[in-house]
Specification:
By secondary structure, the chain is of the alpha+beta class. The protein contains 14 helices and 44 strands. The strands form nine sheets. Strands 14, 20, 21, 24, 25, 26, 27, 30, 31, 32 and 33 form an eleven-stranded mixed beta sheet that branches. Helix 4 runs antiparallel to helix 5, helix 5 packs antiparallel against helix 6 and helix 6 packs antiparallel against helix 7. It is globular. The protein starts with a strand and ends in a 6-residue tail after the last strand.
Length: about 900
């Protein structure tokens, strides 16, 4: 009996019914209609749709103009090229003008002779040059010592018909802007968090439709945010500065050809509004009795509380345009239930650990004080639990103005929570009076993963929500306690998984620029980015290596070579730092976190704690970063660097073997993490690799098929097992339900990824409250293996951005189906399999302008393909079947 039946359902119609191709999802620098492009050579991307199989682009034509309705009338640039390139195509026309809007469209030709229609017209707008800022920084008069949020106001008159109007705005602190009484935009926590002393983002808004003929008014509220509020450890305040300030420039172009600019300057007025305090960690206090009704509207009379403003000197920071998606509101949740705890507290359960805030609907007597406190979990008795928040109050307080129903929400803070305790609510509290809103960077969801196992599906859900909650402009470690910092180790461990779940191209590109800005001259990379810790708090192995790992991972995922170019010097500096601290190519000095939060039994009387030598880990990541630097140098054509660092890599590997491996191939730290890193980074002589994998498996079995890895070993564990033929052991770990494992928190009711494998112990007690986050994405790095091995969607580093890919699912773990969908830079890839009656059935979808190698679980036997497990395919939908039984030898 043949061990494989191959079925290719080719839905090719006759030529007369062939559909022409079309072009969609146009992007400039990864963004849809961006308003602050700063590169002199923007890059264009598009996706191609076609019903024909094996379709490739053979040529494109782009045209760029300044008139939307007729690009050819004011043509700036056009280009025709015979090529398959359809992502990140660089502009090569005349110099682009700052602040100017350009319109573009594209059409393509395919290998079947079809030419698409012109795409829809999209646009981008160039950013503003530093020399073009004519506005002044303004702040409250005198010292900015009040905890209250200041309001800034300016009225002005429009006397002519407007052609278009653009606002450029930023703040030291956070801002919320209004024009004529209406909130500007739908982003929050603007201008975002960067290395403020060096880089400060500005936002651009098209406000043409917001202005009216006659009197207009602009109103802006400022909050402390990361700039002036509490950030970092030790109740550190005002890390970047002690004065909140506003910078705004409104440029109006009239239809008669004239222009006018409204700037922040000495003509503005300032007063204090209803926000009594606002802090990232502690929450917000809002006194509705102090609202200044209509203060941002044209018809408003300023009373004596409105004072002149201070005009500040220009800062040294560079003003930069947005290169990452802004933070926005997303999912909303009604309270599942409102109940009394054993302590008699009123608590609402929203059913999902999330990041954002709660909108409260209330009506009561003036002066009524309502406090919302936030928590991730209840204790084992069912009471509200906040010890793991440490010193973060995470409370929002509202004081009612009376005689009216209000919907109240904070402005300049966010919380991580599932449960909310409500105190002081007037009357009966009903679920519809509470709405929880998720807040995170506005990243497109690109990945979906599901299987026949509900626990694995919940694990995927938890991974995604861990990412959502911690990707709030920077990749934070946790979103609830007095930390919320851009920890580098967490980010590098999770980057590959992040790129499956969401479009993080712009997100990481922006953050990596701050890494370069905060990296020290000697190459030291801080523990957190932006760096709000000490100047020498950095250079930990596996943390600082984010400077090489994430640029490479993003290059592979999105094909963005310019990102590698931008980060290359930073990558070299980090390798140079390790080299400078090494003696005889051995890096065994300095502070290191090691395999953070590895398995440690409470009563380790038989030495079962999986302690891995920190300097072994350091040497392993030293080699890994050098290898990545070599890879990047090859891509960028830096042959001298390739030669230099190849020699260094050989020396580093030899030093590893000499120091950390015995003559029989045993590592001095015989832990899972030690063997995983040595094998994943190819540090061992080839003759010892199989035996090292065997030792790894033996160690796993000695712990009853449990992992013992921490933050640095976990991301690679299952990959190494799969690479050395132990797919069954990898599945054993994935499907393990008891501690320590990925599914243990799921079984305990988790809706996000925990910081610790046993954040809640089987008896209901908790790990140490000082470091016990229930929304901490690092261990969610298993998502990468799930997409790549369970569903089988893998990128090809030699053809980045999924120009070529591998589809090679590896069933196991008792699963009878799995499905993953991934929206790549070229379009959707789908790999969906199920097992029925001993047959493995695989459905595959490949986007236009890409190729894939499909590899099935067992050798393929057919008249067309011979005894091969692999099939090369182009775009289209395909169906494969093979027997799950191996043919007897």
């Amino acid at each position: 009996m043949k061990n494989l039946i191959l079925v290719l359902f080719l839905t090719m119609g006759s030529a007369s019914f062939a559909q022409q191709i079309s072009v969609a999802e146009l992007r400039v620098e990864h963004e849809d209609n961006p308003l602050s492009v700063e590169t002199a050579t923007p890059r264009f991307s598009w996706k191609i749709k076609s019903a024909d199989k094996n379709t490739f682009q053979t040529a494109y034509e782009i045209r760029v103009g300044t008139e939307k309705l007729n690009l050819t009338k004011e043509l700036v640039w056009s280009n025709q090229l015979k090529t398959e390139q359809s992502i990140l195509v660089p502009y090569s026309g005349a110099q682009l003008q700052s602040k100017k809007r350009y319109f573009w469209q594209v059409r393509v030709k395919d290998n079947h002779g079809h030419t698409s229609a012109w795409s829809e017209v999209k646009f981008w707008q160039m950013g503003i040059k530093p020399s073009e800022w004519t506005a002044s920084w303004i702040a409250v008069y005198g010292k900015d010592t009040s905890a209250r949020s200041p309001l800034f106001r300016k009225a002005f008159t429009v006397k002519k018909k407007i052609r278009f109007a653009t606002m450029y705005i930023t703040a030291k602190g956070l801002y919320e802007a209004h024009i004529n009484g209406k909130r500007l935009g739908d982003s929050y926590l603007s201008p975002g968090w960067t290395s403020y002393r060096k880089r400060l983002q500005y936002q651009v808004y098209d406000v043409t439709a917001s202005l009216i003929n006659g009197v207009n008014a602009i109103g802006v509220t400022l909050g402390d945010g990361w700039y002036k509020g509490r950030i970092g450890f030790g109740k550190q305040h005002s890390f970047y500065g002690d004065t909140r300030a506003l910078l705004m420039q409104l440029e109006i172009a009239y239809t008669d050809g004239t222009k006018e600019t409204i700037n922040t300057n000495e003509d503005w007025k300032s007063a204090y509004g209803p926000i009594m305090s606002a802090d990232i960690y502690d929450g917000e206090c809002y006194d509705a009795r102090l609202e200044k009704t209509g203060w941002s509207e044209p018809v408003y009379t300023e009373d004596s509380s409105w004072q002149n403003v201070s005009v500040l000197k220009k800062g040294t920071e560079e003003l930069i345009g947005m290169s990452s998606a802004p933070v926005k509101k997303h999912e909303q949740f009604s309270a599942l239930k409102i109940f009394k705890t054993p302590k008699g507290e009123t608590v609402a359960d929203f059913g999902q650990n999330m990041v954002g805030w709660v909108m409260l609907k209330a009506n009561g007597p003036a002066g009524t004080r309502i406090t919302l406190s936030h928590a991730e979990i209840l204790d084992k008795d069912g009471n509200f639990y906040t010890l793991n928040l440490r010193t973060a109050k995470a409370q929002n307080t509202y004081i009612l103005k009376g005689n009216t129903t209000q919907v109240l929400e904070p402005h300049f803070t966010f919380q991580g929570f599932r449960y909310v305790k409500i105190e002081g609510y007037p009357g009966e509290l009903k679920p519809e009076q509470l709405t929880a809103v998720a807040l995170y960077s506005d990243m497109e969801e690109t990945g979906r993963f599901s299987t026949s196992d509900p626990l694995l599906n919940q694990l995927q859900h938890n991974i995604q929500w861990g990412q959502k909650g911690n990707f709030v402009d920077v990749p934070t470690d946790c979103p609830q306690r007095d930390e919320r910092l851009g920890w580098t180790g967490d980010a590098q461990a999770f980057a590959k998984t992040a790129a499956y779940n969401m479009d993080v191209a712009g997100f990481f590109s922006k953050w990596l620029k701050d890494l370069s800005a905060d990296q020290q001259a000697d190459g030291l990379v801080p523990h957190v980015i932006p760096n709000v810790l000490g100047g020498t708090d950095g250079a930990s192995a596996g943390w600082a290596d984010v400077s090489t790992i994430v640029p490479w991972d993003m290059y592979v995922a999105y094909g963005d070579q310019r990102l590698l170019e931008d980060q290359y010097e930073s990558m070299k500096k980090w390798v140079g730092y390790m080299r400078s601290k090494s003696i005889n190519n051995l890096w065994n000095t300095g502070f290191h976190f090691g395999d953070w939060l590895f398995y440690r039994p409470d009563d380790d009387n038989d030495g079962r704690a999986a302690v891995t030598d920190k300097y072994l880990i350091a040497q392993a990541f030293y080699a890994h970063s050098v290898q990545i630097l070599i890879n990047a140098a090859q891509v960028l054509g830096k042959s001298k660097d390739v030669s230099q660092y190849t020699g260094l890599l050989n020396d580093v590997k030899l030093a590893f073997v000499k120091e950390y491996m015995t003559g029989n191939g045993r590592l001095v730290s015989s832990t899972q993490t030690a063997y995983v890193l040595a094998l994943q980074f190819n540090l061992l002589p080839e003759a010892f690799r199989t035996s090292a994998a065997d030792r790894l498996v033996a160690d796993i079995k000695s712990y009853g098929n449990h992992l013992t890895t921490g933050f640095l070993g976990t991301p690679y564990l299952c990959h190494v097992l799969s690479s050395y033929g132990y797919e069954d052991v990898a599945y054993d770990l994935l499907m393990q339900e008891s501690y320590p494992s990925w599914l243990y928190p799921v079984k305990m009711g988790a809706t996000t990824i925990w910081e610790r494998w046993d954040g809640i112990k089987p008896n209901g007690s908790f790990q140490t409250p000082d470091m016990n986050s229930y929304n901490h994405y690092a261990y969610g790095a298993i998502g990468d293996w799930m997409y790549r091995n369970v569903a089988g969607i893998q990128s090809d580093p030699d053809a980045p951005g999924y120009k070529k890919m591998m589809i090679q699912p590896k069933p196991g773990g008792g699963l009878n189906s799995a499905r993953a969908e991934l929206n790549t830079p070229y379009g959707w890839v789908v790999s969906s399999w199920k097992i029925e009656n001993g047959l493995f059935k695989l459905d595959v979808q490949i986007p236009v302008n890409t190729r894939a190698t499909v590899t099935l679980p067992h050798p393929l036997k057919s008249d067309v393909h011979g005894n091969s497990r692999s099939v090369e395919i182009g775009s289209g939908s395909y169906h494969f079947e093979c027997s799950m039984k191996s043919e007897a030898k």
